[in-house]
Amino acid sequence: MDTFDNFQYDSASSYGGIGVVDDNSSVYTANTQDNASSVDLSSLSISDYQSVAENGHAHNHPSRGALDEDFDAVLDDLKDEGVVDLPPHACSYCGIHSPASVVKCLICSKWFCNSRGNTSASHIVNHLVRAKHKEVILHAESPLGETTPECYNCGSKNVFMLGFIPAKSDTVVVLLCRQPCAAVSKDISWNAQLWAPLIDDRSFLSWLVKPPSETEQLRSRQISFNQINRLEDLWRENANATLEDLEKPGVDDEPQPILLRYEDAYQYQNIFGPLVKIEADYDKRLKESQTQTDITVRWDLGLNQKRVAWFILPKLESGEVRLAVGDELRLRYTGEMHKAWEGVGHVIKIPNNVSDEIGLELRRTEGVPTECTHNFAADFVWKSTSFDRMQLAMKTFAVDEKSVSGYIYHKLLGHELEPQVLRTQMPKRFSAPGLPELNHSQMYAVKSVLQKPISLIQGPPGTGKTVTSASIVYHLAKMNPGQVLVCAPSNVAVDQLTEKIHNTGLKVVRLTAKSREALDSSVNFLTLHQQVANSTTHVELQKLIMLKTEQGELSSNDERKYKTLIRQCEKEILSAADVICCTCVGAGDPRLSKLKFRTVLIDEATQAAEPECMIPLVLGCKQVVLVGDHQQLGPVIMNKKAARAGLTQSLFERLVVLGNRPIRLQVQYRMHPCLSEFPSNMFYEGTLQNGVTAPERLRKNVDFPWPVPDTPMFFYQNLGQEEISSSGTSFLNRTEASNVEKIVTKFFKSGVVPAQIGVVTPYEGQRSYIVNYMQFNGSLKKDLYKEIEVASVDAFQGREKDYIILSCVRSNEHQGIGFLNDPRRLNVALTRAKYGVVILGNPKVLSKHPLWHYLLTHYKEKNTLVEGPLNNLQPSMIQFSKPRRTLAKSMDHFRRHETNARDYLGSSPGTMLNDPNARRSGTPSRFDASFYRTHDPMGYIPSDVQSLRSQATYSSGLPMFAPGPFGAAIPNGAKRSTYSYASSIVSQDAGPSVTDNSSVVGGGSSVNMAYSQSDRLRRRTSFGSASVTGTSDLGSLSQYDYKSQDEAADLDDVKSQYAGTQSGVTVF
């Protein structure tokens, strides 16, 4: 299989002169003689060609002399003929128009060639991927004629699914789709094992679409990768847009990037507000464009007497759409058997390994056409709740002086203050009742948090941060007056923490969204709506609840009385609670608006966008605890502009860069010691201690052929090539999928049950393919394979399995490894297993990247880099590729955040804090390589819908000290004022008073000032010669005595790429 995967069929192969069979059994003869077509000149100016000539850019030219001669000829022709009009079938990118080299996209009717130009993919593949189009037709004058590639069996025209099988006849190939036709088709005239995709190395096979000649490429328009991306974005709004339109004012304007420090909350709002709006607008367009028609519905009646519609969404199967439990859909009947009808409901079940059906519980039951099953359409209902609450939180932060304490206010803005110590009586025992005993690092974390107004806790995998967080909440609730608000960005994380806190004996209320009240959870008895239903203090309310359950609805008077009693009962329950738990977005629920929370703890804070974290903080916070791990996956931002501007950055990370050292939990209780060794050394400076021993993590009843018996891990060499998945936006690797099935089967035979195994892959295309492959090709019972959880790295974050199988997928000659290069993604994947890990990948490709080079070297040193059959694994002798970036220092040079970020910046060339010419405050180098990380998770692939969770990848492939990108707010040459804060501000509600005479930017002398906390509500109108980016109509601050200071602002651009269409926030 590996041999075939590396074989390429082209015009020079034995299948050169062939006939291609379509589903109508018509034969098209392919003329494979390499006749160089005489191509007219593209519509370009002389300067375009001169620029190309100067750069010497061309593909595969035989010699520089021939290159110069061709350029001279082109320039002479241009001077003689001027500009030549292009034919209608010219490539929309570069202008190449040889009939044999171009194809037409059947969706948008634009033509594209099979040339790579300046990109890693051919122009036609680039367009199909970016536009999510999948059908093409060849030119009428091409060797194969006006042909639409389609499956011989089922007629599918999805070119990302299509491949060919050479028939026994030397002159015929058969086109079949990868699944299911190629997998199940059996015919004596062809060998299904020889199936190969029509798109190889991101270009169409040369016998199908001929690559343009060197002369044609030389004469073509030179278009950059960035221009292609911008043009595709522009085509979504204007199908007739051209390259010239990209130069028009206002096109593709970039938003203001986020800063490291902010002058005040107005500047903070003016920078983050537009980013949230950009993300909201993108999310709305995406959701509203996902209408699906021709849906077949199966009707059911739920236990609550509500109608449930069961159906399959084709776009969901192909990975184009992401759906989560609690999302709202609108179902419409479009047939003629019933009058027009539509109903809105929320999703109660999403596809899994057992069933591809979606369960939609409708809000209203009247008029539902249950007698109809066909001709339905589904629309995604977009809700602005999450984004509205973020915007409101930032506005509240700016205008309401009681939203947070003065100390928290300035710390969140990045102003330098003296550390504060809260005056509090320490408990004699830091472990909480009902929870496990804390270890030394956990006790230190609890003790430290109780004494500080703002704390960061870093919880590496398996270190018990949920137990630590619950212990902290217990002591905060017992020591301080008022209630504690506990939040996390996801419902799963909130439920886990809620359960732990409940075990301590505290009164806990879990607040959920209305759309999630019908969903079952482990803490359902703690939810507000369930406590209301079980309340015994409101007899009249209980009667109305029973009446509504029996009759389905109430009279108008009873309904008003019912809602009034519900609100009253909810208020009483919330007021009586010690702890209220909800998602970050849920903290903006109107039911909490009248409550004030002195103490807020946010779990998984590194997975939340910064504006999302602000929602719970502005409810009166005077003490905040952020718990997370910035070495694991971060927030998901869908819009590329917002991602480039830094919305992918979590508040936790920004505070770390500002010098707030996180308290790290250091004892892991999950992994076998050999599994924790590499993550500890690579991501946590070797500080992770093992709370479990090797004998405790070796299962004697499992007879699995580990290459080294006392080291339950190995890297299994796979050389099969990657392929683009059916969605066009993800990848799969058939060889790895086949070997995953073999390994799973071996685990079964060794005594491991399905629930103990997890298959992890970064790509949705591979996830889907593995699920189908195991069920159709597994040698054991089908039901066993159905119980195996196959999911993305993101889905496994925060969870664990006994055994993890990681399929890396990426295997190519020169396309890179996409977001496999994200160290946080690798960290999560490697740290999910308790007893054993198996990694499948191509060492030769992966070793080109420093991070993976270290991992492979680690496995090789342990004699666990192997090849061969599972029953006879042998050490691999493969030679690693040289890493593309040379690492001058040892691995511990690449630790992130191990020192104060200011010390790190001070030691970086050009950023010395004691250098008067250094970059300061909010204006470090905008994209300084040592300070920022770029976002290039997927190379040219724009969106791997379900698998992408983090975009914050690293250009070096290794962990770095500082996250990015923090942009400059002041133009080059401008000045920023510096100032300090009086003790009356920094000490308010935060313990003993201090005097801080240091500058915000840490350099030069400062002027002491005393002003009240309410002064922050007045907007500054000027800063000497400095101008504040962004404006606000919320008022102005009075003038202060500032000391101006020269600063440099380096505004170099950075190549930033983002992929993903997941929702960036969770509606509580």
TrEMBL record:
Annotated Upf1 domain residues: 83-238
Protein name from the UniProt record: AAA domain containing protein
PROSITE patterns named in the record: UPF1_CH_RICH
Catalytic activity: ATP + H2O = ADP + phosphate + H(+)
GO biological process terms held by the UniProt record: nuclear-transcribed mRNA catabolic process, nonsense-mediated decay
Stored SMART domains: AAA, DEXDc
Source organism per UniProt: Lyophyllum shimeji (Hon-shimeji)
Source lineage: Eukaryota, Fungi, Dikarya, Basidiomycota, Agaricomycotina
Keyword Transferase: no
UniProt signal peptide: none
Annotated region (C4), positions in chain: 151-181
Record has Protein biosynthesis as a keyword: no
Region called C3H, residue ranges: 91-123
Region listing for Disordered, in residue ranges: 901-924
